[in-house]
């Protein structure tokens, strides 16, 4: 099922993503409050000694430090960042906007993670279908995001939407794949503080959409 029109998939910067991500960025793209919530979410939903795919990853995966996994596969756009990630057992570099087919076996992971990157997918329906394929029955796909982005590389459907509309958009991505069920939606906006009134903001909002592959 195709959800987006061509113009909704467009980016302000249409140049090859490989060039944009060629230089490593050893930074975190969200604040510590977001990262803490994400690690707690993983702690709640992931099981030790399982196989995890960290899709569109970087030099850090935010997995609970006390949990060990049978295998963590990493995917991303920058080899140096992925090589520096201590949680990855193996990784591969691939531009999903040019080739959405994952070089991974069917039903090979208990969970797939995507952190603050879903806004860059130009063919989200195809990528979500691929995630469904590589998940084991009842496997989870945990998609998390905030309101930050590389604005020039986010698709127009994401740029134009409100934060609530972006949550609905990700839910539609799941719905585009038959038998992919959304089982949890998290929407947490940081409370205002005295820093907010000085123009410092109230912290990064935390959004998460968790889907589950059907039992077969």
Describe this structure in words.
The protein is α/β, with parallel strands linked by helices and 216 residues long. The chain contains 7 helices and 7 strands. The protein has helices spanning 17-20, 32-45, 79-83, 124-134, 156-160, 163-175, 194-197, and strands spanning 51-55, 71-76, 90-93, 109-115, 135-145, 180-188, 206-213. A 7-stranded mixed sheet has the order 3-2-1-4-5-7-6, with helices on both faces. α4 (124-134) links the parallel β4 (109-115) and β5 (135-145). The protein is globular, with a radius of gyration of 17 Å. Mean pLDDT is 89; it is low at 192-199.
Give the proportion of residues in helices. Answer: 25-40%
State the helix count: 7
- Please state the structural category: alpha/beta
Shape: globular
Give the strand order, joined by hyphens, for the main sheet: 3-2-1-4-5-7-6
In the predicted model, the low-confidence regions spanning at least 5 consecutive residues are: 192-199
Q: Ends: how far apart?
A: 22 Å
Beta strand %: 15-25%
Strand/helix succession: HHEEHEEHEHHEHE
Q: Note the main sheet.
A: 7 strands, mixed
Radius of gyration: 17 Å
Mean pLDDT across residues: 89
Number of strands: 7
In short:
The protein has 216 residues and is an alpha/beta fold. The protein has 7 helices and 7 strands; from the N terminus they run ααββαββαβααβαβ.
């Amino acid at each position: 099922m195709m959800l987006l029109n061509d113009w909704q998939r467009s980016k302000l910067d249409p140049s090859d993503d490989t060039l944009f991500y060629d230089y490593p960025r050893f930074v975190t793209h969200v604040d510590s409050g977001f990262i803490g919530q994400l690690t707690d979410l993983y702690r709640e939903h992931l099981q030790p000694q399982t196989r995890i795919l960290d899709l569109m990853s970087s030099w850090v995966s935010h997995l609970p430090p006390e949990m060990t996994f049978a295998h963590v596969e990493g995917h991303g756009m920058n080899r140096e960042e992925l090589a520096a990630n201590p949680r990855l057992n193996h990784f591969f570099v691939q531009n999903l906007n040019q080739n959405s087919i994952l070089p991974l076996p069917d039903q090979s992971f208990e969970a797939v993670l995507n952190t603050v990157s879903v806004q860059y997918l130009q063919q989200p329906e195809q990528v979500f279908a691929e995630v469904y394929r590589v998940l084991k029955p009842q496997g989870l796909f945990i998609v998390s995001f905030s309101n930050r982005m590389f604005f020039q590389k986010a698709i127009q459907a994401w740029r134009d939407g409100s934060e609530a509309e972006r949550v609905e958009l990700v839910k539609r991505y799941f719905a585009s794949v038959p038998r992919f069920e959304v089982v949890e939606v998290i929407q947490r906006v940081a409370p205002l503080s005295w820093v907010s009134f000085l123009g410092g903001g109230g912290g990064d909002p935390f959004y998460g959409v968790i889907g589950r592959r059907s039992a077969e």
